[in-house]
TrEMBL record:
UDENN domain mapped to chain residues: 50-439
Pfam families: dDENN, DENN, uDENN
Keyword Cell inner membrane among record annotations: no
Single annotated GO MF: guanyl-nucleotide exchange factor activity
Record flagged with keyword Cell inner membrane: no
Entry protein name: DENN domain-containing protein 2D
Gene name tied to this protein: dennd2d
Coiled-coil features, chain-numbered ranges: none
Keywords in alphabetical order: Guanine-nucleotide releasing factor
Organism of provenance: Xenopus tropicalis (Western clawed frog)
SMART domains: dDENN, DENN, uDENN
Amino acid sequence: MDQLAGVIRRSFRRKSNKRGSIHGASASEDRSIPTDQKTLVLSGGQSFFEYLVVVSLKKNYDGNYAPQITYQFPKLENILHFQKDEEERLLNAIPLFCFPDGNTWAPLKEYTSETFSFVLTNIDSSRKFGYCRRLLPAGNGSRSPEVYCIISSLGCFGLFAKILDEVEKRREIATALIYPFMQGLREATFPAPGKTVKIKSFIPESGTEIIELTRPLDCRLEHIDFKTLLQCLNSQIILHIFASVVLERRVILVARDLSILSECIHAVVALLYPFAWEHTYIPVLPHVLIDTVSCPAPFIVGVQNQFLSHILDQPMEEVLLVDLCKGELIQKVGDEEKILPPKLQEQIRISLDDYQQITKTTPEINTAVSKTFMQFFMKVMGHYTSHLQEINVGKFTFQEKAFLKAIHSKTIRRFLKCFVKTQMFSIFIEAQQNKSTQNVYFQQKVKEFNEQRKPERK
């Protein structure tokens, strides 16, 4: 187990070679999606998932329970040797993330099923999502929970949560009903944004059912639930977290429930749009990887609160530690309130306070929160397009000094002087220099924003 944990640690520590590049992937790539699949993911046409695994708890010789994969669909077949090695490495890691609680389990008579997700990073720095439903198998007497985990390169939590609902529904009747359903899903095509795919599935006594799976129109937000984050934390703490991650610091979120933990971690990362978190990113940190928090590199990790004492015992450098259950800061660096420009920080705070008081649906909250933080980036660096100078046909260079000098506000300029040194900014600018098609939505919004500001400058 310790050897496996060491392998996993290395896979999550995505080392940077130099400013503007990532080990194993070019800086202009979106590492959340493999390069050859980007167009398919954005337009649809890709398979829903790679495989489904069932992870169960098995008692060891020492009397403790350890998670093991007891079923896999489909099996690893007809793939190249190096691909098989990579897949087996990932498969070996999955049980740790399905039961990150360690060996603290004992048979139960009752257990409320919960849904959560985790992220695995490949050698090429692409990411795979694990969508999990942990439940108690049907039966009498005490028994151990098990996890149904779907591995996919697609980030779409809401859609996969619905798929897991169908999996659990069939599990309650008979395990054998799950696999025909998953086979039908495997043969279906992942829909384009806003589109629906229909899956036929037979259930005894109910007959053939038609299951409709609809993908959100705005695919930027299909893996996100900001509502949970707003319910757990007040606006001031959310701003502390945002300020920390935007300067690529170390952040730890603590919660009891895996679902809350993973939802909030994904939401925090989504606040950075159009930028992407380029460092260690573990929504649910397995107990055996607790020492990851002593790493001096930037990270965002989620930890169950039963391991908080273990976290506090680690030799951590400057870190922001947040308790999602109590809605309070456990530990902070101390300068979080001074990182963001005060006026813009206050605007975000007022907006977040409004969202917490007004009853809205999750999609409405997601859209509103995303817009608020995207507007922040447009206000502080929306003028970047004016400082991309063409040096060759289709090739541009970024004039950083002129970009900073163009800002009249001292507080915004002070923030930008720190922000331009981050890896996420360097990678974003490199993509713009190469006229990448990434972040087209943001580019369009920046164009509209700058057009609106023209009359103000006259």
